[in-house]
Write a structure and sequence with these properties.
The complex is a heterodimer. By secondary structure, chain A is of the alpha/beta class. Chain A contains 17 helices and 12 strands. In chain A, strands 3-2-1-4-5-6 form a 6-stranded parallel sheet, with helices on both faces. In chain A, strands 7-8-9 form a 3-stranded antiparallel sheet, with helices on one face. Chain A is elongated. Chain B has 2 domains: 247 residues, Rossmann fold, CATH 3.40.50.10540; 119 residues, formyl-coa transferase, domain 3 (2-Layer Sandwich). Chain B is built from 15 helices and 14 strands. The chains are: A alpha/beta, B alpha/beta. Strand 12 of chain A pairs antiparallel with strand 8 of chain B, so a sheet runs across the interface.
Chain lengths: 407, 407
C-alpha cells in the first residue's frame, strides 16, 4: 500500500522565487509529482539569492532555491513562444493542480488564464499568488519583498521604539502567503475529491500578511488603538527580551529570556543570584515589573553578559524559565531537537555531491513527508517530462530543442 | 469546502489559529475551554472596556462554536472524550502532560478510533530533548532561526513586536491536518500530525538556517546590513545590502520605504522617481537628469561622488515631506516606483483596495461591530474561506454540540 498522502497528485508549478514555489515543495514532499517550469534565459530570482554552496554565487548553488524546489522535476521553457505555450497547455491537460505567480494579467495575454484552461477541464484546481491579488487598484503594483511587508503593516511593527522602524527580515509575507495558500488549496482538493469540482484560488500576499495581524486589526476596529513597535518587549510578559552573552570565537551571541508569571520571575532572579530582586515586593506583579522594566533588563543583561548563551539556556530551562539561545546558521545543524526530528535533510546533488534542505515542518505518523530529491538543475528533466509525462516522440522533442523552445 | 468535517479544538493561544482556518473553510469547529475560560482569552492585545477583551481571542476563535468542561471533574472529562470520539479531527496545543493525565492524548484517543486525525501543535514537537522546554513565542523565534540575524546596528536582535511564531505553526497545523484528511480519503486511516513551531519558523529566515550546512560563511549575508558598504554599491531593487537608515524616509503623514536603486537592472525605478520630482519641480540639474542605470559606473570613475549622492537624497527627502502615504502609493503604481508607504493599522483599515476586494469580515465584539480580515484567499467555484461569525462565549454551545455530535 502506498504510504504517500498525495500519491498520484499531478502539479504544474509555474511560480517563482519563494511564495509560490514553497506550495509545490510541500505537495512534492507528500508524494505529488510536481513539474516546475522556468526559464534558463531569464533566470529566476531565487537562483541568484544567497546562501550559496561553498559561498560561491552560482545559479545552481542557491540553498534558497534548493529549499523551495526540492523534489520537483525541472523543465526549462520559453513561455513567450507559441510552442512553449503549447507545452504548457499539454501539461495543464496532464495536471490536477496549477500554481502560478506571474504579474496579474500576464497569463491572460498568453491565453493561459484560468477561464481558458478550465474550459475543457472543469475539475482543474488553479492557484495564483501575487503581491496584492488578481484584481483591485493595487493589483498592478511592481512587486518586491518589502512591498508586502510594508502594506500589510509589518514594516511598521519591527524596531525599537526610539529608532526607525526596521522592517522584517526579508520579504515576510513570502513566509505567510504560502501557508494560507496551501491550506486553501488542500481544502479545494478535498472538495474536488468529494464532488469533482475544480476551483480558482487568488492569494494576495498583502492580505495573508494582514491575516497574521488580525488581532491588531481587530483592536483598531474596537477602540482605535494603532499597534506600535516596542523592541523586544511584550504586552503580556515582563521581563521579555534578548540579551547579549559572552562572545564565542569573536561572534556576538544572544539569548531570549522571558518570565511568564511571578513564579518564573523569582526563579529567574534566583538563577541570577539576585535574591534581592526575587524578594522585592514591588516586582511581585507584572505591573510592578513593567514599571521597573529598564532596571530588570539591565540586571538580566549584566548577568548574561558573562555567560555563554547555551549556559543561560541550560540554567534557566532547568529552573523552568523560558529561555533559548538565539540560533544562528552555525548552530542550526547541531540543534539537538532539530536533529532528533531529522529536520535538516541531506540529499544527493549532481553538482555539489550533496546538498541540505529543511524537511517538512509536520511529522505525519502514517504518511510521513520527505523531500524526494534535490531541486532540479536548469532543464534537468526536460527529456523525461516531455517523453514520459507528455508522451512526445523524439522528433517532436528535437524540433522543440532546435527551435530554442527548451531554454 | 470542509462542511463535512467535525473538528474538536483543544488549543490554547499557541494553536488557536489552526481551528479558525478550518472554520473559515467551512468545518464545524468546536473550541473547548476549561470551565474558567481559555488562557487565550488573556492573550494580547487586550482592549480595555467594560469587560477587558483579548483581540487575539476574538480574531482567532472567530467562527468556532464554544464548549466548556470542568476538567477537574472526571464525568465532564468523560463527556469531552465522547465528543472526541465523534470528531473527524482533534487539534490541540495543550501541554503533553495535561493531555495524558486527562486521557486525551493521541495514543489514547486513537486506540479505538484509527480513522481519527489528531494534530498536535507545540513549540518543539511531541518528543525529543527540548519537548518539555518552557516556551513562549519569543523563545521559539530564537530557537528556530529568525531572531539572530535581525540586528539593528549593534543592538540585540529584534523580533516582530507582536507574537508570530505560533501563527506559522498553527497555519502549518491546518495544512498538515488537511494532508492527513486527504490521505484518509484514500486509505481510511487517520494519523498523528506532530507540528513543531521551531521548525515552522525556519522558512522565515530566507534559508539563512541552511548557510552553514551548505558551506556558505559570508558574514554579511548572515545579518541585516548595518553600515554603508565602503566603495561598493548595492545594485539590487530591494536594497538588501543597504543600511536601514538609508531606506526609510519621512513623508507628510508617516514613513516611506524607498531604496535609491542603481545599476543596469534596477536603476530604471530611480529614474522613474526622479521623473516624478522633475515634473513637480522638486529637483535641479544636473541631478534631475542622472541616469541611475549608470550611476555605479560614474561613481567608480570618480565622475560622481558620494557627496553628489547626498544632494540627490536631500532632494528626495525634501520632496517626500510634502507627500502623504496615499500619494506615494498612488505614484508607485502609476509611475512604477520601488517606493512604498509604511502602513499602520489605520491605513490598512482605510484601504480602498482591500474594501474593493471584499477582504473584510464583520464580527461583534461585545456590542461593537469590528472589522476582521475575512478571507485568507479568494476562491471561485466552491464557496471560499471567510470568517463565519464571532468568537464564542465560554461554554456557549456546550449543550447543543453534545446533542448534535452525540446523536
Amino acid at each position: 500500500m502506498s504510504t504517500d498522502a498525495l500519491a498520484g497528485l499531478k502539479v504544474l508549478d509555474l511560480s517563482w522565487v519563494v511564495a509560490g514555489p514553497l506550495i509545490g515543495r510541500t505537495l512534492a514532499d507528500f508524494g505529488a509529482t510536481v513539474v516546475r517550469v522556468e526559464s534558463s534565459v531569464r533566470v529566476e530570482t531565487a537562483r541568484l539569492m544567497q546562501p550559496f554552496h561553498g559561498g560561491v554565487q552560482d545559479k545552481e548553488g542557491s540553498a534558497l532555491f534548493g529549499n523551495c524546489n526540492a523534489g520537483k522535476l525541472g523543465l526549462t521553457l520559453d513561455l513567450k513562444s507559441e510552442e512553449g505555450q503549447q507545452v504548457v497547455r499539454d501539461l495543464v491537460a496532464w495536471a490536477d493542480v496549477v500554481v502560478e505567480s506571474f504579474s496579474p494579467g500576464q497569463l491572460r495575454k498568453w491565453g493561459l488564464d484560468y477561464e481558458t484552461l478550465c474550459a475543457g477541464k472543469p475539475d482543474l484546481v488553479m492557484l495564483s499568488t501575487s503581491i496584492a491579488g488578481q484584481h483591485g487598484p493595487w493589483s498592478t503594483l511592481a512587486g518586491f519583498g518589502n512591498v508586502g511587508s510594508s502594506l500589510s503593516g509589518f514594516q511598521h511593527l519591527v524596531g525599537y521604539e526610539d529608532r526607525l522602524p526596521m522592517g522584517t527580515f526579508g520579504p515576510y509575507t513570502d513566509y505567510v502567503g504560502p501557508r494560507l495558500a496551501l491550506v486553501t488549496l488542500l481544502a479545494a482538493l478535498e472538495n474536488r475529491r468529494r464532488t469533482g469540482e475544480g476551483a480558482y484560488i487568488d492569494v494576495s500576499q498583502v492580505e495573508a500578511g494582514i491575516y497574521f495581524l488580525s488581532p491588531q486589526v481587530a483592536q483598531f476596529g474596537y477602540d482605535g488603538t494603532i499597534a506600535e513597535r516596542q523592541g523586544n518587549r511584550d504586552q503580556q510578559y515582563t521581563p521579555h527580551g534578548v540579551f547579549g552573552c559572552r562572545q564565542v570565537a569573536g561572534k556576538d551571541r544572544f539569548v531570549a529570556v522571558v518570565a511568564r508569571d511571578t513564579a518564573e520571575w523569582r526563579a529567574l532572579a534566583k538563577a541570577m543570584s539576585r535574591p534581592d530582586l526575587a524578594d522585592r515586593a514591588d516586582l511581585a506583579t507584572v505591573e510592578g515589573r513593567r514599571a521597573a522594566q529598564d532596571e530588570i533588563e539591565s540586571a538580566v543583561a549584566a548577568w548574561t553578559s558573562g555567560l555563554a548563551a547555551t549556559e543561560v539556556e541550560r540554567v534557566l530551562q532547568s529552573a523552568g524559565v523560558p529561555a533559548h539561545l538565539a540560533v544562528t546558521s552555525d548552530d542550526y545543524p547541531a540543534d539537538s531537537q532539530l536533529a532528533h526530528r531529522g529536520h535538516l535533510v541531506e540529499l544527493p546533488h549532481p553538482r555539489h555531491g550533496t546538498t541540505w534542505v529543511e524537511g517538512p515542518r509536520y511529522a505525519l505518523s502514517d504518511t510521513p513527508g520527505r523531500p524526494r530529491g534535490a531541486a532540479p538543475t536548469l532543464g534537468q528533466h526536460n527529456e523525461m517530462v516531455l517523453t514520459e509525462i507528455l508522451g512526445y516522440d523524439a522528433e517532436r522533442v528535437a524540433v522543440l530543442t532546435e527551435g530554442g523552445i527548451l531554454r | 469546502m470542509l462542511e463535512h468535517l467535525r473538528v474538536l479544538d483543544l488549543t490554547d493561544e499557541r494553536g488557536l489559529l489552526c481551528g479558525r482556518l478550518l472554520a473559515d473553510l467551512g468545518a464545524d469547529v468546536v473550541q473547548v475551554e476549561p470551565a474558567g475560560g481559555s488562557t487565550a482569552r488573556q492573550a494580547p492585545p487586550v482592549a480595555e472596556g467594560a469587560a477587558p477583551s483579548s483581540m487575539y481571542w476574538e480574531a482567532f476563535a472567530a467562527g468556532k462554536r464554544g464548549a466548556a468542561f470542568d476538567l477537574d471533574d472526571p464525568q465532564e472529562v468523560a463527556r469531552l472524550r465522547l465528543l472526541a470520539d465523534a470528531a473527524d479531527i482533534v487539534v490541540t496545543s495543550w501541554p503533553r502532560p495535561r493531555l495524558e493525565a486527562l486521557g486525551l492524548d493521541p495514543a489514547t484517543l486513537r486506540a479505538d478510533r484509527p480513522g481519527l486525525v489528531y494534530t498536535v501543535v507545540s513549540a518543539f514537537g511531541w518528543d525529543g530533548p527540548k519537548a518539555s522546554y518552557a516556551d513562549t513565542d519569543l523563545v521559539v523565534w530564537a530557537a528556530g532561526g529568525p531572531l539572530a540575524p535581525h540586528r539593528d546596528g549593534d543592538l540585540p536582535p529584534l523580533r516582530i513586536s507582536v507574537p508570530q511564531a505560533f501563527l506559522h505553526a498553527a497555519a502549518d497545523a491546518a495544512a498538515g491536518t488537511m494532508i492527513a484528511v486527504l490521505a484518509r480519503g484514500a486509505t481510511g486511516r487517520g494519523q498523528v500530525v506532530d507540528v513543531s513551531a521551531q521548525e515552522a519558523v525556519g522558512v522565515a529566515t530566507l534559508a539563512r538556517v541552511l548557510a552553514t550546512a551548505v558551506g556558505d560563511d559570508h558574514p554579511e549575508w548572515q545579518t541585516t546590513p548595518g553600515k554603508r558598504t565602503g566603495g561598493r554599491t548595492d545594485q539590487s531593487g530591494s536594497g538588501a545590502a543597504t543600511p536601514n537608515s538609508l531606506k526609510k524616509w519621512h513623508c507628510r503623514d508617516g514613513m516611506v520605504e524607498l531604496h535609491l536603486s542603481m545599476g543596469p537592472a534596477a536603476g530604471t525605478f530611480t529614474n522613474n522617481l526622479f521623473a516624478w520630482l522633475r515634473d513637480e519641480g522638486a529637483v535641479e540639474e544636473p541631478v534631475a537628469s542622472w541616469d541611475w542605470r549608470v550611476v555605479p559606473d560614474r561613481l567608480v570613475s570618480g565622475e560622481l561622488s558620494h557627496d553628489d549622492l547626498d544632494v540627490a537624497r536631500a532632494a528626495v527627502r525634501a520632496f517626500l515631506l510634502t507627500r502623504t502615504k496615499a500619494e506615494v502609493l498612488d505614484a508607485a503604481i502609476r509611475r512604477r516606483l520601488l517606493c512604498m508607504a509604511i502602513f499602520d493599522m489605520a491605513d490598512i483599515a482605510a484601504s480602498p483596495h482591500l474594501e474593493e476586494r471584499g477582504f473584510w469580515g464583520h464580527v461583534d465584539v461585545g456590542s461593537t461591530d469590528v472589522k476582521l480580515p475575512g478571507r485568507m484567499a479568494q476562491v471561485r467555484g466552491p464557496e471560499g474561506p471567510r470568517v463565519r461569525g464571532r468568537a464564542p462565549l465560554v461554554g456557549e454551545h456546550t449543550d447543543v454540540v453534545l446533542k448534535e455530535w452525540l446523536r
